[in-house]
Amino acid sequence: MQPATPPPFILEPLFMYVYVLHVKKAGHEITEITAINHVGGHVCFPPRTLKGLVVMAASQGTRGALTPTDRP
């Protein structure tokens, strides 16, 4: 059965495509990504919510597709 409480972090569907503004790193590990979504709103999220390919794209400051279902 699914738990009644939602997961601690949820990406809204309107955050499907982003342009990365800033990537916070601890050494070589990305800890946080700040971006503008496709409707011009800012979104900040931990990289564990994304697929590895998107995190790589984010680290290079490129636009990438978010995958809200990819959670640990």
Element layout with pairings:
Blueprint: E1 17-26, E2 29-37, E3 42-45, H1 52-59, E4 64-65
Antiparallel strand pairs: 1-2, 1-4, 2-3
DSSP helical segment count: 1
Task: Specify Rg, calculated over alpha carbons.
Answer: 12 Å
Strand order of the largest sheet: 3-2-1-4
- Characterize the main sheet: 4 strands, antiparallel
User: What is the averaged pLDDT score?
Assistant: 58
N-end to C-end Cα span: 18 Å
Number of strands: 4
Helix content: 10-25%
Poorly predicted runs are: 6-15, 65-72
Strand content: 25-35%
Secondary-structure element order, N to C: EEEHE
Shape: elongated
* Helix-strand category: mainly beta
Structure commentary:
The chain has one helix at 52-59, and strands at residues 17-26, 29-37, 42-45, 64-65. The chain is built from one helix and four strands; from the N terminus they run βββαβ. It has a four-stranded antiparallel sheet with strand order 3-2-1-4, covered by helices on one side. The protein is mainly β and 72 residues long. The model is unreliable at 6-15 and 65-72 (pLDDT under 50). The chain has a domain at 18-65. A hairpin with a 4-residue loop joins strand 2 and strand 3.
